[in-house]
Structure formats: C-alpha cells, structure tokens
Specification:
The protein has about 475 residues and is an alpha+beta fold. It has two domains: about 375 residues, Beta Polymerase, domain 2 (2-Layer Sandwich); about 80 residues. About 50% of the residues lie in helices and about 15% in strands. The protein has 17 helices and eleven strands. Strand 3 and strand 4 form a beta hairpin.
Length: about 475
C-alpha cells in the first residue's frame, strides 16, 4: 500500500446507531436553541448562502468581461456557517480556457481554444496527480507559462510551487492589501479586518472518481444531490503530498463546490454537530500546528450523515451525535487514519504532524469531554456566555447581530452593482439603497455600543463594537 494510503471505506464505516430515545435529549434541545441564537440556525445560514452566491454572480459578471476566470467563494462562508469576520474568506480563482482530464479522455471533444492537461495519478498518492501538458492553445494564461517545467523524460509538467509564487507576486493586489506567508495551496492576505485565503485552480474532469463515489451504498445524500455533485466536477489546486519527494510537481484533486453542496444539504442537527466540533477544536484542543483542522471535522460529519438514517439526526439527539463525532475524531487521531469522504483511498491524517505526546494529549482531552457529557459545552466560549447571559439581552443582541450582518452582505453586493454600468440596472436606485444601508449599519453599531456602556463596558470606539459583533 502506498504511503498515505488507507483501508477501503467499508472497513472504516462508523457503527450504525438505531434507537428511539437518546441520553441528554433535553440538554440537546436547549443546545439547539442556543446555537440558533448564536447565528447557526437554518434561516440565517440560508440567507448567508444566498448572499455569497449573489456576490460571486455579480463579481464574475463584472470580471469576466476580460476573460480572467471565475471566482468562487468556498469553505465556511459558502456554507453559511460563519459571520462576516468570524473566519477567513476562502476564494477559489478558476483559470479560464483550461481543463485537466483523466487518462483516456478524448480531448478531441473539447473546443480548440481550450488548454488541456492530462492528470497522471499513477505515480502519486491517492487524491494527488501530476499535470502533463497535453495541448497548448493561444489562450494561454501567463501563470501557466511561468509554472511549466520539464521532467527527466522531457515531458512538460506544471510546477505547483511556481504556480503559487506567481499568484503571490502578480495577482491584482490593492494598495491596502497585506500579503502573508503561503499556507498550503493558498496565498493568505488581509484587507483591513477582513482576512482572505486565495487559491488558484484549474477545472478538472474526473468522472471516474466521481462515479466511484456515487456508486457507494448510502443513507445520504439523496440521488438528486448525488447527480448534482457529479455534474459539478472537480478542481486541481497547487499543493503536493507533504512527504512526497516530488511534491513541487504534484497537485491536489479537490471538490470545493461539490462539498459546499453537500454541507448545504446536511440537516440542521448535522450542521450544528460540525459547528460545535469546530468550537471544541478552537477552544479546548487548540492543536499546535493544524493537527486537527475544520476540514477533518467536515469529513467526519459527512461520513456520519452518509452511514446513518437521516431520521436519527434531530434536535433531541444533538449531543449523542456530537459524542459520536468526537469518538470518530479520537479514533482518527489515535490510529492516524481518516478516509477522505470523496476519495476514501486518501488518508487525511497522513500529512498531520504530531508526536506521541501530542497524540496522547489530544486523545485524553477528547476522552475527558466525552465523559463530561453536556457539561463539556461550558468549555466553549460562545456557548458558555450564552448560557450565563440573561435571555432578554441575548435575544436582543442576536437580533442586532443578524440584521447588521445581512446589511453588510447586501452592502457588498450593492457596491458591485453600483460599480458596473454594464449590469444594466438603475444605479440611482442602488445608490439610495446603499446610503440607507450605511445609515442603518451605523445606527445598529451605536445602539449596541450605548447598551454596552450602560452595562459597564469600557469600549470607547463604536467601530470596535461593530467588528466584535461580526466576528
């Protein structure tokens, strides 16, 4: 078995749970209510999802006049799981006129102006590939020219390290942008309080991989979502397997839009399991070097959803399934094994760096939390503050935060509409909307600030309050 390989997913599948009554049902329902108030309920999530979809649509309509590719919001923002400043905004820039294909794909079916790379997966770990130049056309982005290299056989390959370096140096950065050190395939940067992770990518046709995923016996997702995921295809991003001797010329196969679709079709309880597990990692486990990432947690929840009937996931079973998810995480850390949901042969734990002491400490911490039952929630900052807060202030603050966030997301979309004359809209009407949005956002910031002062806060800057609300 290749380094980083895993057992087939059927050997790993979490145990099936089937019961009508769960331990801690009342506490589960109370936790569900608190999560709604904290901004993780289905209504606010759907509004976020729709707002970011509209942002992408407007941005691409504005930018694609010059055939510069497509921008896709990915990660927690596209899934409606985080407030505006709560985490980085993950953006995928998909280059135009370029596609990567599996071995055996008939490239004659593609238009003449499309650049084609063949995916060589034979010499790579599962989930990774090399990109061999199959066909080059006049419509060749500069980043491809910069990233091309030769192997020992004279074949032209794409170098993933050169690709990221080109993005870092030549992307259209604004004067206010602060670039940060490379993180995996991404170029992290910040613009004021907003943090971004930009990843350049190529679209990828990998029907064989997707059909293999689709053929699994499953409880979830339903057939129509499976078909939608297949139609979305995949991407390759510039990062090789960490321990590979040739990782500079390897690329990772990713399913960003497909995974967003899957997460957006989880039920409410499954989503909250995912969010609470992220809180546990950030507030309690606090791994030193990304030994446990949000992506690992997402895969655990996707496996739980696939392998168990959806009727078992409800507000009364939230804590039960949270314990199940933590148990899977504990096992994954202990044996250093967790199959990637889309390509089970890829082991997500194979590239994690932790020594025996770190491994033992993480396992011990997770075991302690499982044994604590519902009391473990008091370790989580947001939930603890919500529990000890009087209901009336919490409800009021939740209402203010939700309105402010929706106004901010709408403001961003209005600004794009106002900046593009080609969108054929009534710009005077849009400017009026924008002005009203700014006024209401300022009012909310002042209202929250004044209430905080009355309750003894020492914060003297309303803008700090606004950033805190949106974090």
């Amino acid at each position: 078995m290749a380094e980083g390989g895993v057992r087939h997913y059927t050997e790993w599948t979490p145990r099936l749970i089937n019961r009508s009554r769960y331990e801690y049902e009342d506490e589960s329902k109370e936790t569900n209510t608190i999560m709604n108030l904290l901004g993780y309920g289905p209504v606010i999530r759907q509004k976020r999802i729709e707002a970011w979809k509209e942002f992408d649509r407007l941005q691409n309509a504005h930018n694609n006049k010059n055939n510069t590719g497509w921008w896709i919001t990915a990660g927690s923002k596209s899934e409606g799981l985080t407030c505006f400043l709560e985490s980085d905004r993950d953006s995928l820039h998909v280059l135009p006129f370029t596609v990567c294909v599996e071995d055996g794909f008939d490239t004659r079916t593609l238009p003449f102006y499309i650049n084609v790379f063949k995916m060589d997966m034979q010499s790579c770990n599962a989930g990774y590939c090399r990109l061999l130049v199959e066909r080059i056309c006049p419509s060749l982005p500069w980043v491809i020219i910069h990233s091309a290299t030769n192997d020992e056989h004279g074949s032209i390959l794409m170098n993933s390290t050169y690709f990221v370096e080109y993005y870092r140096e030549h992307y259209r950065w604004s004067d206010s942008t602060v670039k940060h050190a490379r993180a995996g395939p991404s170029v992290p940067y910040s613009d004021g309080p907003v943090r971004h992770d930009l990843v350049g990518a190529f679209h990828c046709n990998c029907l064989i991989i997707l059909q293999k995923w689709a053929s699994r016996a499953r409880h979830w997702p339903p057939p129509e979502i499976v078909e939608k995921v297949i139609a979305m295809g995949a991407f390759v991003t510039p990062i090789g397997f960490k321990w590979s001797e040739y990782n500079d010329i390897e690329w990772r196969i990713c399913f960003n839009t497909a995974e967003t679709e899957l997460v957006n079709n989880l039920n409410d309880t499954q989503v909250k399991i995912y969010v609470i597990m992220k809180m546990i990692v950030n507030d309690v486990l606090k791994p030193q070097a990304k030994e446990v990432t949000s992506y690992i947690l997402k895969n655990i929840v996707l496996w739980l959803a696939e392998n168990n009937p959806q009727t078992l996931f409800h507000s009364g079973s939230l804590l039960h399934w949270l314990h199940e998810g933590l148990d899977v995480l504990r096992t994954a850390i202990s044996v250093r094994q967790l199959p990637y949901y889309m390509i089970p042969e890829r082991n997500l734990m194979a590239e994690r760096e932790f020594d025996v002491d770190q491994q033992r400490e993480l396992v011990r911490s997770i075991t302690d939390m499982i044994n604590e039952g519902p009391r473990m929630l008091l370790r989580l900052n947001k939930i603890r503050q919500a529990i000890i807060c009087h209901p009336e202030p919490l409800l009021w603050y939740s209402k203010m935060r939700t309105e402010l966030e929706m106004l901010l997301l709408e403001k961003n979309n209005i600004e794009i509409r106002c900046s593009d004359e080609d969108l054929m809209i009534d710009q005077s009407s849009e400017f009026k909307k924008l002005f009203k949005t700014y006024i209401r956002m300022a009012q909310i910031g002042l209202l929250v600030w004044m209430r905080m002062l009355l309750e003894g806060s020492s914060v003297d800057d309303p803008s700090v309050v606004v950033n805190s609300i949106l974090s």
